[in-house]
Design brief:
Layout: E1 5-12, E2 23-30, E3 38-46, E4 54-56, E5 58-63, E6 76-77, E7 86-88, E8 93-95, E9 99-103, E10 109-119, E11 127-136, E12 152-158, E13 160-168, E14 172-178, H1 180-183, H2 195-205, E15 212-218, H3 233-242, E16 249-253, H4 256-260, H5 272-287, E17 292-296, H6 313-328, E18 334-336, H7 338-342, E19 343-344, E20 347-351, H8 365-373
Parallel strand pairs: 14-15, 14-16, 16-17, 17-18
Antiparallel strand pairs: 1-13, 2-10, 2-11, 3-8, 3-9, 3-13, 4-7, 5-6, 5-10, 11-12, 19-20
Helix pairs in contact: 2-8, 3-5, 5-6
């Protein structure tokens, strides 16, 4: 690779433990939408939560056509160190060899992975919800097929955790770290409504400014301080931010689930000082690697119905204290005020109804878009 180019992550899915799923001699066809495009790419496949090695029988990448089908003649075989198959150690990942494929910005890419072995629930499948349609074949290796037969649909990501492209040395990348409010839970399927998706569209549409990829590292239920359905924000920060190819910026919006304390454990009931101490660690660790770290305020969730009883006045007081600290601190390189973007000015402990999906916790499609629009693009120049 020339001195004027480098690898940049254009799409990611945070590895997490899938729930109640198994595979046996199936082919998965995952349909990621990239942020920036490129002519040369590679794919990352994770066995982060596996209890034993994961066998990859074959893997291919192409451009999505309609449904599970590919654009004719776009499918490319992936190799791993020159081999057509790979074995991924428990807890590890594998990065494919580069392939030549012209991928436009905001294109849908099809990554097909054949899993030849028997992977019961006890294996520990790595995956999480996608809010879009992906495909699982009947038994067999169909990774090379342009029109893969479909055994069932899934709205989860499985194993595929990243796509990188070769980009100019000036190109940067933003890792968006958050929970379901970053991952766009409850948004319309196949609509790409998350605020990182909206940010990627805005960055591509602007007439001037540095080229920037956007990697969505949102993970439903995620917290700053405690593990739940995957690693805490502090535990996964090295993997999901510092290790990402070409990362130059990160936007951190975490803390809502710390407040909600889904498990109801007294020892996990957080205070504002505890949350602030955790947020400071994101800044310290990111800035030490030359990454600009941008904090995001926490959006209102008064009387949410997704988890009845998760909001109460005491937790609201903590949210307000954390947000006020974020607005006043110089620990971060910048702040995005998501709270101000979504809240009802006449009732600031709740979202404006037009931005509320109806559960008073997750934004609507319009609300997610407003979050993406609240980010000052000059932060990335």
């Amino acid at each position: 690779m020339s001195d004027h180019a480098h690898w940049v992550g254009t799409w990611t899915a945070t590895p997490a433990p899938a729930e109640g799923v198994a595979f046996s001699n199936h082919t998965l066809r995952m349909m990621p939408r990239v942020s920036i495009g490129g002519r040369r790419l590679r794919v990352r496949i994770s066995n982060a939560h596996g209890t034993r090695p994961l066998a990859i029988g074959a893997a291919w990448v192409g451009l999505r056509g309609e449904g599970p089908a590919l654009v004719p003649e776009s499918n490319r075989r992936l190799t791993f160190g020159g081999e057509r198959s790979a074995t991924i150690a428990a807890g590890a990942l594998v990065v494919s060899d580069p392939v030549e494929l012209e991928v436009p910005p905001l294109a849908d890419v099809a990554v097909s992975v054949h899993l030849p072995g028997d992977l019961p629930v006890s294996f520990g499948i790595t995956g999480r919800y996608a809010r879009q349609t992906n495909y699982v074949s009947p038994p067999g290796n169909f990774a090379a097929e342009e029109a893969m037969p479909v055994g069932r649909l899934t709205d989860d990501w499985y194993f595929v955790c990243g796509i990188d492209v070769v980009a100019s040395s000036e190109t940067g990348a933003i890792a968006a770290v958050g929970d379901s409010l970053t991952d766009a839970n409850i948004s319309t399927h196949d609509g790409h409504h998350s605020w990182p998706s909206q940010l990627a569209r805005r960055l591509l549409a602007r007439a001037h400014g540095r080229a920037m990829a956007v990697m969505n590292q949102g993970l439903g239920g995620n917290r700053i301080l405690h593990d739940i359905r995957g690693d805490s924000g502090l535990r996964r920060f090295d993997r999901d931010v510092l290790a990402q190819p070409g990362v130059t910026h990160t936007v951190i919006m975490l803390g809502t689930n710390d407040l909600r304390n889904r498990n109801g454990k007294p020892e996990e009931e957080v205070t504002a000082p505890q949350m602030i101490a955790g947020l400071k660690q994101f800044a310290v660790r990111g800035q030490a690697r030359g990454i600009k770290v941008i904090g995001g305020t926490l959006t209102p969730f008064e009387n949410e119905t997704f988890l009845p009883g998760a909001w109460n006045p005491k937790r609201e007081t903590v949210r307000q204290a954390v947000n006020e600290w974020l607005r006043q601190t110089d620990v971060f390189d910048a702040i995005v005020d998501f709270d101000r973007a979504l809240r009802d000015p006449d009732h600031p402990t709740r979202m404006l109804p037009i931005y509320d999906c109806g559960d008073h916790l997750h934004p609507s499609d319009r609300g997610y878009r407003a979050m993406g629009d609240a980010i000052d693009l000059s932060l990335f120049d």
